[in-house]
Amino acid sequence: MATLVELRNTSKTFGTGWFSRKTVALRDFSMAVDEDEPTITALVGESGSGKTTIARLILGLIPPTTGEVLYRDKPLLELSRTERQQFRRDVQVIFQDPFEVYNPFYKVDHALHLPVRKAGLASSRDEAVEVIEGTLRQVGLNPRDTLGRYPHQLSGGQRQRVMVARALLLSPKLIVADEPVSMVDASLRATILENLRQLNTEFGISIIYITHDLTTAYEISEKIVVLYRGVIAEQGDVVPVVQEPEHPYTQLLIGSIPMPDPDQKWQQGLEVVAPSTDATAETMTADYAGCQFADRCPHAMEMCSESPPLYQTASNRVVSCHLYREEAAA
Amino acid sequence: MAASTNGPQSPALDVKNLGVSYFTSSGEVKAADGVTFSIMSGKRMGLVGESGSGKTTTALALMRLIKPPGRITSGTAVIDNTDLLSLNDEEMRNAKLSKIALVPQGAMNSLNPVAKVKNQIIDGLRDHDADYSANQYRELINELLTKVGLSPQVGDMYPHELSGGMKQRVTIAIAISMGPNVIIADEPTSALDVVVQRQIMETLAELQEELGAAILLIGHDIGLMAQFVDTLGVMYAGRLVETGTLRQLLREPKHPYTQMLIDSLPSLERQDRKRGDLRGIPGTAPSLYALPSGCPFHPRCPQAMDICPSEEPVLKVVNDDNQSEQLAACLLY
Ligand SMILES: Nc1ncnc2c1ncn2[C@@H]1O[C@H](COP(=O)(O)OP(=O)(O)OP(=O)(O)O)[C@@H](O)[C@H]1O
Ligand SMILES: Nc1ncnc2c1ncn2[C@@H]1O[C@H](COP(=O)(O)OP(=O)(O)OP(=O)(O)O)[C@@H](O)[C@H]1O
Ligand SMILES: [Mg+2]
Ligand SMILES: [Mg+2]
Known about the structure:
The complex is a heterodimer.
Chain A: E1 3-14, E2 23-34, E3 40-45, H1 51-58, E4 66-71, E5 74-75, H2 81-90, E6 91-94, H3 98-101, H4 108-118, H5 125-138, H6 143-146, H7 156-169, E7 174-178, H8 186-203, E8 206-211, H9 214-220, E9 223-228, E10 231-237, H10 238-243, H11 248-255, E11 311-314, E12 317-319, H12 325-329
Parallel strand pairs in A: 3-8, 3-9, 6-7, 7-8
Antiparallel strand pairs in A: 1-2, 1-4, 4-5, 9-10, 10-12, 11-12
Chain B: E1 11-24, E2 27-40, E3 44-49, H1 55-62, E4 70-79, E5 82-83, H2 89-95, E6 100-103, H3 117-126, H4 134-147, H5 164-176, E7 182-186, H6 194-211, E8 214-218, H7 222-228, E9 231-236, E10 239-245, H8 246-251, H9 256-263, E11 316-321, E12 324-328
Parallel strand pairs in B: 3-8, 3-9, 6-7, 7-8
Antiparallel strand pairs in B: 1-2, 1-4, 4-5, 9-10, 10-12, 11-12
The structure holds adenosine-5'-triphosphate (2 copies) and magnesium ion (MG) (2 copies).
């Protein structure tokens, strides 16, 4: 088994200024992407749970505070020049916020021609245009409505799809897609997710699909990691996790999914525990050692002041909750 | 019973024949064309539709925020007997926040990163030459933050110190600061997880009831719409192609586009769908530079007829139960 990219026991702490509080954005997180068996893995969690931090670690955009990031079993920092170039082609990203990624002074064409040129995907300008237009159509965009425009002249969803097209251009081995469809309608979302899945099944590209939307995660991924404030709450094959969630947080998430049915209103009586009013929750500091969900959890017990390990509850499944300590031991 | 213009039955917002075009080097883009709808006081309307169909454009036009090369080309938008579209700049500045307020798309990211939350709230109020003392400002800000479920300390924080959900609450605090009659929320929760989303929508609903305001909620999430709105409008290629009550549109959508949109909802949300059975609408959205003739949906429509390429459909009553009309712009009817 060859591992393409691996995060090994990585943690990331932000805020090293004298006055700013340190935030542990990610705690002791491990995950590996296998090269021979391309899969779609969903990373799901609320805002601030560490999803984008994981993406940036995998892409080598930030170093881990502790732990290692490996490409083909070699730490990123030790890669040779050619290995690094290979890494940059193999691992592509679709960023979360299409407003931020584009340079507002360049037309969107720039963002598409650059990778084509860098990777030598076309031998002439005409050929480049052909490749680009084809890819735009693949993601449901009309080239005429897209090319020659500045980013602010496109709608939110159009910008997002240009980013998807850009990642498709390079035929990488792994695409990290950070909220690629958060701003498009249901039918387009279906089309783009279908595109991503085709990349996986037809071209053997692995995909890390980052989202706060459990529904789409359920649709296209095989595995799922549910994150909560920088730790794994629950992880396993997507069908059992979504159909029979074990962690109280996953249960809360699934109970809050709004159903498109006038007779199925938000489950009443579901305890929507008030959000902690602060972003970087108290619990996300280095000295907090308890369960991250304890302050919102309807089942919180005394032992939750100690952070639960990942209990294995089935062959492919772990959950970080003391409720499962006996089941796992048995 | 005839609705009087000032009675409880009068619409809080009445939009007629709104047209907005962007005049670009490659031609005119009619991003909103003949958009007509109204929302009653205390009611909530949802606006859904394909990406690029003109939802944000409609919202910006109602706020008079369309910038060149864009221009409002036609229409009226009446709140409280005042047509927003014919106000001069000064009058419009006064109407903003007090008559109509917008939580813009991507609002969380539009907060000024180098200004404290309280100053961003004050900025909105200043536009109204509100003559408040420092103490009055402080009290008002504390009250607004508490209303949206934030602690008053948040006023002294910077946006990067807040979570997405908290930032979104700040943008709502700004929107309600002057007690508007109409609140437009453009995808207010599309970047948030379902738990936070639900909390925010519940907060928004409470505030709306308190204010007696009407809400126009723009978004893609039909599930969220089903939880929140009373009526729904569907846009396609700059036009409103169907409107009606939530139940009418979800249970008996008449326009083929609406039918396919509802059919593309993912499986966790419906019993009749297998996992991974993704159904997008085939074909791409039409180019607004070269709209198909006749009905703009006809090239992608499974029920298209011979006349569809030649005749342009207008909104017609297709269902009239309990006096709540369902309208669709489709030649099938
Ligand atoms: N550069 C930074 N400096 C300080 N704190 C940071 C930085 N980047 C991220 N954080 C903090 O780390 C935590 C995790 O952030 P991250 O961006 O990974 O969350 P996310 O799961 O992607 O959230 P979202 O869904 O909102 O995108 C948050 O508390 C965030 O405030
Ligand atoms: N400044 C501009 N110049 C030219 N065209 C524009 C401009 N702003 C928007 N458009 C075009 O107008 C159309 C409508 O855009 P709008 O932002 O209203 O769509 P939307 O329905 O809000 O889409 P989304 O769901 O993706 O946010 C799009 O085709 C867009 O490309
Ligand atoms: Mg993120
Ligand atoms: Mg929009």
